[in-house]
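Box 3.1 A note on notation
Throughout this textbook, protein chains are presented in two layers. The first layer is the amino acid sequence; the second is a token string describing backbone geometry. Keep the layers aligned when reading.
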Amino acid sequence: MLNFESLGDNCEFGLVQRHFSVEPQGLLRFASVRLDRLMDAIDSRFTGIDDIALEDRSGEVVATVRPYQFVFHTWMRTAQTDLSHAEATLRTRNRYLREHLIAELEAGERILVRKSNAPAAETDIDRLLAALHRYGPNTLLWVRLADAAHPSGSVEASGPGLLCGYVDRFAPYVRAGNASFEAWAAVCRQAWQRNGAATRMYAVPRTRAAEPWVVDFTRGLDAPWPTGLTSMRRAFQFTRAGPALYRDRAGHMVTVEPDTPRLSSGLDGTPRGLVLEPEATNLLPLADSFVASFAPVDGMAAAPSDDVPPLRHRAAVMRHMITRPNAATRVYHQLLSAGLEVGATYCCSCWVWIPAAYSGSRVSAMLHGSTTRTDVPADLARRDCWQRSWSVGVVASDPPVLAPSMHLTGTQGDVVYSTCWQLEAGGGATSYIPTADAPASRAAEAARCSGSAFGWFDASAPGTLEWEGWIAGRVPGVLRLSDGCDPQTGIVLAPSGAATAAGEAVRIVATFNDGTLRCRDSLGGAAAPVALADPLALCCLELLPAPGLLHQRLRYSPGTQAA
């Protein structure tokens, strides 16, 4: 009984555990939980679980979780309870049990139990299982009423990670302790045996046919999911430990909260795709307010300005003017040495605004002090708007010293503007990370979807998976297909080469047939065929993070081979 975790719909299973002298900690063990509200909570990682209201019901303090309308027993007598103290205690309890449950879900070691006196639809159980699989390799025990074909106490495997158990009756909601204890005990014994290492597999049953589907991130996360049962926001598990910036449809740089996906747009407002980036650190302090951090250079003047709109709210804008005729000159940002490594690769980037009157021939970020440098200058054809320029180089000096700077080639009086400077390790520029008095970091982000939500890849039969997106530079991979148990295993689809520095649309096609995967892409490359050890176990899809990578569309077509 200790190896099971209740997901509702009432406290019957919690009382079954108590009957057998088992008292595990569980967030939902004694809670009344509707299935749709449960999935909302799972999809949001139980955010707001400590937002509670207390009331008296028949002499007991009963708590309601406001965001999801969970109602649970506290086992506190109203006459003997200080409600203000009880509320603080229960908030702390719920926060602790939330972290405990999330850890359990990510580990996938307990069997999760869901029952309902009223019959639940199989599609709803599929959605619940998909939500649980986004955390980890979980097993769901769906307990139903016995019938002629399914005797009380029996358990059967009904799909990947799904067990169906049968009891002769459920306790009435008004008397949840009047359960069929022996039937429950038999179901738990059978479920635990069936969930042993030999049988706990997430391979796809051959009787379940694969279905075609299309995911288009340019349509937004609330667009219908291919099955029509949910949306992309609910089908994928998006994770990121901290806030991050992206460009919205109005062209503004906006901040999103942790675990919130970023759908970026181009400068013209056209949706570009889903941004997923690795962990990164902006090594430039005061990158959002750098008025005093520019070093004076002969032939160049730099001063704060409000001539042009800021790229993001409260971001400082600097005005750079060439002060001598026919100059090729630089404006230095900060001279940095702390935290740098000799021989390491770094990327300096900034956003620039080129006025219509600019007559020069070059505007470019530059990483002074580095060798084997690659500069990506601004596009002089784009005027009166913000665009990004960056420079990648290797630290040459020992001790290491770098000076992020801007290179201008123009004539006396030419003016450009810059904002949102960044210096980071690696060979590409990630999205901007604001800093204060010290370097600042952004956590890595991920997007993962289990096969229960989108269908299954039966690689033993013909089928095609197509990925479309934008890539700048070289990325190690765009997505991983696995069995959902170990995220470090599986097949990684990667482009054969590097896209242009400015970014270009790339299409990668993976073809399945006879247990073999063949991959090719629009960059002109093809990978060697890969023989899959278990063709039916590809039931988890994970989009990979990389600098300069935007995920646009995914399309799966069973029974066909791409041209």
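The longest strand covers residues 415-425. The radius of gyration is 28 Å.
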